[in-house]
Amino acid sequence: QVQLVESGGGLVQAGGSLRLSCAASGSTTRYNAMGWYRQTPGKQRELVADSRSSGTTDYADFVKGRFTISRANAKNTVYLQMNSLKPEDTGVYYCRLRSSGDYWGQGTQVTGSS
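RE: above sequence
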């Protein structure tokens, strides 16, 4: 069983920064993908950024140049550094791990105030 524990959400003024963390525990394989998705008001859950254990990353166009995903493989942890936050970034951010299975965290609220 894999568990994902997210932290780092909160309220920040437009233009500010937050750093999200997601730590995985349990039966994770060495080769996996860890990433962040979000659900904003009125929209379906969407990819924000994804990082594979090979080192490759993907970003949604709406966060390129503002958000950075990184990971500490030894800790099975993935981070999302969010800079220049906008009010439209407001939503629930979910961590996802894909290895032998597909696992999701419970989500953490991010609110960008105008």
